[in-house]
UniProtKB/TrEMBL annotation:
Keywords noted in UniProt: Aminopeptidase, Cytoplasm, Hydrolase, Manganese, Metal-binding, Protease
Gene: pepA
Catalyzed chemical reaction(s): Release of an N-terminal amino acid, preferentially leucine, but not glutamic or aspartic acids; Release of an N-terminal amino acid, Xaa-|-Yaa-, in which Xaa is preferably Leu, but may be other amino acids including Pro although not Arg or Lys, and Yaa may be Pro. Amino acid amides and methyl esters are also readily hydrolyzed, but rates on arylamides are exceedingly low
Root EC class: hydrolase
Superkingdom of source: Bacteria
Name under which the protein is recorded: Probable cytosol aminopeptidase
Domain Cytosol aminopeptidase: 347-354
Known role: Presumably involved in the processing and regular turnover of intracellular proteins. Catalyzes the removal of unsubstituted N-terminal amino acids from various peptides.
Active site residues of this protein: 277, 353
Alphabetized CDD domains for the sequence: Peptidase_M17
Cofactor list: Mn(2+)
Family named by the database record: Belongs to the peptidase M17 family.
Binding-site residues for Mn(2+) 2, renumbered to this chain: 265, 270, 289, 351
Organism expressing this protein natively: Aphanocapsa feldmannii 277cV
């Protein structure tokens, strides 16, 4: 799929070109409900008075989420799609994304060679408007057909975005690199656990390193044992698939001004261990428990392609499975993490924080300027925030504001949650330094407090619990049903904002 941007004045000439070379194209126009006649006026001049009659007859009012497709059987123009934007004063970037996603799906029904997209973006910051449209359009058309015996081979059409304020191709390239990272994360998270194993994730990291000039350090079980990673290896002991500790590094050309570390939870399958997932736990979906790792690897792919200057980025994941075996973790076991902290395991289904504990200790040893972890960590966060928002915990106000700003710019829902220190009393153990779970109430808060114990003193740190938005049963505007690739866009925007 190709993408380019043109100024509004060039849109009419583009249609004339289509007429000359015989293409069947689709024109998509955003229409405001409070400017219906005004917005339709230039379309009448361009496509004829019959257009107005058709719109009136079909009752199009340009409400948010409303669309009207008018297919033509004659001439090169395959169709006209009108997308409702609602009232102009209420338009938002998120609304722009939803409109672009809806437009993409509507245009695809016409099977065009080229799509001209004009969503009236003059009221938005130029860079954000163009990026948002391109990302939403491409991500809405994502198709994962790897495991289908009969794939849909219909080519996706070229997108020509009518950009009111900028046609900078570099912005489009940034958006496409971001989309490539999101698509990698989606494919990793969606794939079945007999495909995406710890070894598969390690091989993916190796391919990224070779393709994009990253450095890969891969720690095997014996390497992790020498580093004292007892918490991580305690979880990994349950599986016949050996653990793989992934450490990818992007180093920019020239001087480094900031060192950032991204840590992703990498449980390729979570049975719950002896605290087996039962009832409505949807154990078959526990393949997405490596969504944090998927986001981190997706961000690595996108950032390595863009090559930001001045910022060194480390991508880390302690990958393994949480299974059941005679050699596996018992409820009541005591593990020793690599910083010497002892952990009483009162729930084997709270395994992700055990793997993250050693990953955070390792990451802290890199002495980063900021450290962010992402994890499908708790069901409690989903209960609190639903499936459209991730939770953010951080004792650092500056880092929290940066991440919230990047999430907003990227179109990913993120909400800051309290890190209430008094709740840590629920993690007290009679035998060890800490338990791995506290009481049911405030479960996502105590999970974040547990992780904080393994972050080096003075390091700005944030924890993102992405258990809700990493997966959607029915799909959302830009996301298909299934894996969303959540986190890639926020991470990339944040890292790029730190570049010099």
């Amino acid at each position: 799929m190709e993408f380019r941007a043109i100024p509004p004045a060039a849109a009419a000439e583009l249609q004339r070109e289509s007429s000359r070379d015989g293409r069947r194209d689709v024109c998509i126009h955003g229409i405001f409900s409070d400017r219906l006649e005004q917005d339709l006026a230039p379309l009448r001049l361009r496509f004829g008075e019959g257009l107005a009659g058709s719109i009136e007859r079909l009752g199009f009012k340009a409400k948010v989420g409303e669309k009207l497709t008018l297919q033509r059987l004659d001439g090169p123009l395959g169709g006209i799609v009108l997308v409702g934007l609602g009232a102009a004063p209420e338009q938002s970037v998120e609304g722009l994304r939803r409109a672009a996603a809806m437009a993409a799906k509507a245009a695809q029904e016409c099977v065009p060679r080229q799509v001209t997209l004009d969503l009236q973006t003059g009221g938005f910051a130029a860079e954000l408007a163009l990026r948002s449209q391109v990302e939403a359009y491409r991500l809405a058309l994502f198709r994962d057909q790897r495991f289908k015996s009969e794939a849909d081979t219909t080519p996706l059409p070229e997108l020509v975005s009518v950009a009111a304020a900028t046609t900078d191709q570099a912005l489009i390239e940034r958006a496409l690199s971001t989309c490539a990272g999101v698509e990698l994360a989606r494919e990793l998270v969606a794939a079945p656990p007999n495909v995406v194993t710890p070894a598969f994730l390690a091989e993916t990291a190796r391919e990224l390193a070779q393709s994009f000039g990253l450095t890969l350090k891969l720690l095997e079980r014996e390497d992790c044992a020498r580093l004292g990673m007892g918490a991580y290896l305690g979880v990994a002991a349950c599986s016949d698939s050996p653990p793989k500790f992934i450490h990818l590094t992007y180093r920019p050309p020239g001087e480094v001004h900031r060192r950032l570390v991204l840590v992703g939870k990498g449980l390729t399958f979570d049975s719950g261990g002896y605290n087996l997932k039962v009832g409505n736990a949807q154990i078959e979906l526990m393949k997405y428990d490596m969504g944090g790792c998927g986001a981190v690897l997706g961000a690595a792919r996108g950032l390595a392609e863009l090559k930001p200057s001045g910022v060194e980025v480390h991508f880390i994941s302690a990958t393994c499975e949480n299974m059941i075996s005679g050699a596996g973790l018992h409820p009541g076991d005591i593990l020793t993490a690599s910083n010497g902290r002892t952990i009483e395991v009162n729930n084997t289904d709270a395994e992700g924080r055990l793997t993250l504990a050693d990953a955070l200790v390792y990451a802290s040893g890199l002495e980063p300027d900021a450290l962010v972890d992402l994890a499908t960590l708790t069901g409690a966060c989903v209960v609190a925030l639903g499936d459209e928002l991730a939770g953010l915990w951080s004792p650092d106000d500056v880092l929290a504001r940066q991440l919230l700003g990047s999430a907003k710019a990227a179109g990913e829902g993120l909400w800051r949650m309290p890190l209430r220190s008094s709740y840590k009393d629920g993690l007290k153990s009679q035998l060890a330094d800490i338990k791995n779970t506290g009481p049911r109430a405030g479960g996502s808060i105590t999970a974040a407090l547990f992780l904080r114990d393994f972050v080096g003193q003075g390091i700005p740190w944030a924890h993102l619990d992405i258990a809700g938005p990493v997966w959607s049963d029915k799909g959302r505007a830009t996301d298909p049903a299934g894996a969303s690739g959540y986190g890639v866009r926020t991470l990339m925007d944040w890292v790029l904002s730190q570049a010099s």
